[in-house]
Amino acid sequence: MATILTGDKEYFKGFGQIKYEGPESDNPLAFRWYDENRVVAGKTLKDHFKFAVAYWHSFNGNGSDPFGGATHVFEWDQKADAVERAKDKMDAAFEFMTKLGLPYYCFHDVDVVDYSDDINENDRRLQTLVAYAKEKQAASGIKLLWGTANLFSHKRYMNGAATNPDFHVLTHGAAQVKAALDATIALGGENYVFWGGREGYMSLLNTNMKREQEHLAKFLHTAKDYARKQGFTGNFFIEPKPCEPTKHQYDYDAATVIGFLQKYDLLGDFKLNLEVNHATLAGHTFAHEMQVAANAGILGSMDANRGDEQNGWDTDQFPTNLNEVTECMMVLLQAGGLQGGGINFDAKVRRNSTDPADLFYAHIGGVDTFARALITADNILQKSDYLKVLEERYASYDSGKGKEFEEGKLTLEDLRAYAIEQGEPATISGKQEYLENLINRYI
Ligand code: XUL
Ligand code: CO
């Protein structure tokens, strides 16, 4: 990886380059599984994952929750002037990212620099920081996986942005998206994300759902047309989430978003950025969400994290569950990888994880979980009888009448005649426990 970048000041003192040391290493500040040059299933681990650091959680998230204020006090967050403060934060971000050695980052507009209520002033601030980021990207080799606009924190978005009942609010959302697209394009960003945090409703009593969804589609078309006109060739991603902060969010889950994209003629430009904890909130496993997206050909990118099994909200913890991630990597490999995106750690250290080292441990653990899971998944697919067992389960459709059914050649009467002729079907095991054990065997 590139050399470590520090600004005038070193923020993560005492930390050097994080290196791959192998599974025998006892060093908590080393990768044990993520050897970025290791080739698995025909690609390096670096290329499989395109790991990204999330600006918002890592450099803005101060540990506050609904019951208490900040517990993380950042040295880079002290200056009075917004642009100067943002530059300090960017120095800290690139220092951390170069020490960690991951190839990408992601941001919302307001993560990079604080916004005022003046659109022109905000554009100037963001452009100043984009120029600063350009230099840092060139010096470090770190690239922008995706940019996005935060259309959910400001109070004007309390009833949504693109789905706001007030057109005036929608236009403020558009101004922000334009600036965020310009920033993403200027920085060579490979993708652009729309997460509709408040694009939904709290009560159906005051909501015209049909109109709001039409406005959302129109807004997305308008943004996409603008970006394409500016020469943006990357993907647009929609990030599904069922709720939180709204009671009901329109981009509920992968299947819902696929229906929406189809209905409003957005497939082709838009793919999915799936997030683990959002899948959990929708009552799905993450592997399910990935499979739904892969089947539609739009498995674009991933926000990696995990929820808490006892909690019903978005806890955004770093991923550590090998079994869960291995199942997901089996889906990923069979889908032929992500389309244009990567693995962004949309995850935060806990409120009481207050050492600078915690941010390193968290990312190292997440990275190693994915690396180990991918290696395990590849072994299962290459060396075990997993694929054979799965294929055999559907063998009755591979020839004879089953094949004719798949080809659309049989009538309902034909199917009835077959049932009578063959009598009662044999009992065939689904072998679930066998397959679950297979994963543990290969881990
Ligand atoms: C919120 C969330 C966002 C998106 C980007 O749950 O995941 O941070 O990833 O707006
Ligand atoms: Co996310």
Question: Could you walk me through the main structural features you see in this protein, from its secondary elements to its overall organization?
Answer:
The protein is α/β, with parallel strands linked by helices and 443 residues long. It contains 16 helices and 14 strands. The strands form 4 sheets. It has an 8-stranded parallel β-barrel with strand order 5-6-7-8-10-12-13-14, surrounded by 4 helices. A two-stranded parallel ribbon has the order 1-2. Strand 3 and strand 4 (43-44) form a beta hairpin. The two termini are 28 Å apart. The model has no long low-confidence stretch (mean pLDDT 97). Bound molecules: D-xylulose (XUL) and cobalt (II) ion.
How much beta, percentage-wise? 5-15%
Strand order of the largest sheet: 5-6-7-8-10-12-13-14
Radius of gyration using CA atoms only? 24 Å
Poorly predicted runs: none
How much is the average pLDDT?
97
Shape: globular
* Head-to-tail CA distance between termini: 28 Å
Q: Helix fraction?
A: 40-55%
What small molecules accompany the polymer chains?
Answer: D-xylulose, cobalt (II) ion
Class inferred from helices and paired strands: alpha/beta
Features:
11% strand; binds D-xylulose; eight-stranded parallel β-barrel; binds cobalt (II) ion; two-stranded parallel ribbon; alpha/beta
Give a summary of the structure in a few sentences.
This protein is α/β, with parallel strands linked by helices and 443 residues long. It has helices at 45-49, 55-60, 82-100, 109-112, 119-140, 167-186, 209-229, 254-263, 276-281, 286-295, 322-335, 356-383, 386-393, 400-406, 412-422, 432-442, and strands spanning 19-20, 30-31, 39-40, 43-44, 51-54, 104-108, 143-148, 191-194, 200-201, 235-238, 248-249, 270-275, 299-304, 343-345.
